[in-house]
UniProtKB/TrEMBL annotation:
PROSITE patterns, sorted: PABS_2
Keyword terms, alphabetized: Polyamine biosynthesis, Transferase
Protein name in UniProt: Spermidine synthase
Assigned protein family: Belongs to the spermidine/spermine synthase family.
A GO-annotated cellular component: cytosol
Pfam families, per database record: Spermine_synt_N, Spermine_synth
Domain PABS: 6-243
Organism of origin: Anaeromyces robustus
Keyword flag Lipid biosynthesis: no
Active site positions, chain numbering: D162 (proton acceptor)
GO biological process: spermidine biosynthetic process
Length: 288
């Protein structure tokens, strides 16, 4: 649930009871309901253009780069020579923008179930969409991502799941069946990165994703923290399943052009993001 009242947008959710975040707004830009989701776009005085889906903020002009850079570059720099990338979700194209910075990439497929997110992003978030739309390596399609992967066995080097929280259409990509398809779609040495929720809010979900990734066959499962102020409690994470060993240190160096394009990601940030607070480390690394 969210509330517009006296010039403020307040984000309230049963997923984080007892806590709410508020943003002073300049104006509401758009409010549309697709077949799958309720999408709101408004301009915040502090955060700029903002997208909310089903009452939860997904992207703001102020800090979107933190999430999109880390979701893309942690796994891309952990792979020695990635060629083919699949993005499930991510219809705003922010992750795609980052993936396409890598000249070694030959193909980026982006599969999102909701074309309305992309339609609104093209109109109101051109800083996310302009680069992918001009790059011939990029292909976006609007269909169920799990079904799409069934025909792509042993095909991708990297699969990135850029989803909303596990509600609405995203529920189906937080289960074992989905990750079995992901595992089969990866080439030998392939790596998956999924939106991994926050250990402050969703520890049970994080641990469940860890267990699922191990059960389907990933020998290495790790968690990388992303600091992003407009998400509840100021952080989220990416959970990584790897067939290529640990992703805690990059395997490729950034070019100067790549490094100059970054606002958040760096080699140092890559490595530091895997350091966990003790309460979480004990749970994540246990066999529970």
């Amino acid at each position: 649930m969210n509330v517009f009242k006296k010039g403020w947008y307040t984000e309230i959710s049963d997923d984080w009871p007892g806590v709410a975040q508020s943003y002073e707004i300049e104006k509401e830009i758009a409010h549309e309901k697709s077949k799958f989701q309720d999408i709101q776009i408004f301009k915040s005085k502090r955060c700029g253009m903002t997208m909310s889906i089903d009452g939860a903020i997904q992207s703001t002009e102020m800090d979107e780069f933190a999430y999109h850079e880390m979701m893309a570059h942690i796994v891309l720099y952990s792979h020695p020579n990635p060629k083919r990338v699949l993005i499930i979700g991510g219809g705003d194209m922010g992750v795609a923008r980052e993936v396409l910075k890598h000249k070694c990439i030959e193909l980026v497929d982006n599969c999102d179930i909701d074309d309305k997110v992309t339609e609104l992003s093209k109109k109101h978030f051109p800083h996310l969409t302009d680069i992918p739309l001009k790059d011939p390596r990029y292909h976006i399609m609007f269909q169920d991502g799990a079904k799409f992967m069934e025909s792509k066995v042993n095909y991708y080097d990297i699969i990135i799941t850029d989803s909303t929280d596990p509600t609405g259409p995203a529920v189906s990509i937080f289960n074992k069946s989905y990750y079995e398809k992901v595992f089969k779609a990866l080439r030998p040495g392939g790596i998956i990165c999924s939106q991994g929720e926050s250990y402050w809010l969703d520890l049970d979900i994080v641990l469940n994703l860890r267990n699922i990734m191990k059960e389907v066959g990933f020998p290495v499962v790790e968690y990388s923290t992303i600091q992003i102020p407009t998400y509840p409690f100021g952080s989220i994470g990416c959970i990584i399943g790897s067939n290529a060993g640990s992703c805690k240190k990059p395997r490729r160096a950034m070019t100067k052009e790549e490094a100059d394009s970054m606002k958040y990601y760096s080699k140092e940030m890559h490595e530091a993001s895997f350091v966990m607070p003790q309460f979480f480390k004990k749970r994540f690394e246990s066999e529970e």
